[in-house]
Amino acid sequence: MSNSDRQARLEERVIRAAEAALSRQQHVSAIDVFCGMGLLLPMHVDSWRKGRVDYLERVIQGNLHKISSSMEIFRRWAREKGLKPSETGYGRRARSGIIPLRFSESGDPAIEKSYSTHYLSPALSERKQEKLQERLNRTPQPVLFEILRDAQCSECGVEMGEGSYLLMEADQPLCLACAGFGDLEFLAAGDVALTRRATKHSARNAVVVRFSRTRKRYERQGVLVETSALEKAERECAEDADERAAGRAREAVRRREEDRKLVARMAQQIGVLFPGCPAHELATIAEHTAARGSGRVGRTEAGRNLEERALTAAVIAAVRHNHTGYDKLLERGMDRATARQTVGDKIDEILAAWRT
Prior knowledge:
3 domains, 13 strands, about 55% helix, alpha+beta, globular, six-stranded mixed beta sheet
């Protein structure tokens, strides 16, 4: 492959990743582009944000020439698109205060600025741009871990039993007192309004997570906030409890009506794509795939936009589960890939009939 072909391929990858990020979130950064290109893993970004990686370029897959070329292509694309540049602050919280994060090994101010600049869509209103810039500049809350087994503070040596909270700083465990959170009060997750207000009023706060052995992931348990902030938030919530309850009721009605209309439009469009599909099947497929909170294809952006590929995927899934022996094959221990291949001909036969 010639150098010009390599450059053209790199440019295509950069622009594709940038376009996808801009479409998804109305702003795009160098980190979004490198992640979209597959040159930077989210887990490495997370490690860098937590101070476990000294500079971001260390974990970007590619030599400096490839990285700098990608950055130049990205900046040129942003200018040609008319995107608004916005320099964003990147930092992590530590006991000593906010520590700036470094992108490059050299730490050159021009390079650091290039990495930290986000580009905003001109379609956003001034107010939305301001809110977005405020959110991007916000330093992430400290994360404390509810431990599953005994540990020891690396600083004071105190023993911490299961269920205690600790902060990891520079890969070393710290107890709440050494981390500077010993005087904060725990607020369990569940009441969104109370959590939001208590966090807002608290000058110091932290998120508490716990590792789930069954789901193999960290799950939010609540927050630590100042006692005075929690008391103020509780008073505010008590004062407008009736108003918020009425608002929730109105929102529930709105969501039900929105879902009803989505199901109706989805069933109609599936009928266009598959005119031979029985009417009762149309309604069942639409209701199933559009169920709120289900995570099914009907709740994706493509599904809500009634894109053909998304609705076809929903119909295929319905045929697989309702008109073949797929589920019984899984119950017998067959792996998913083999089971899908086994029932593939039956699915194609039914889809062909429904398309006529």
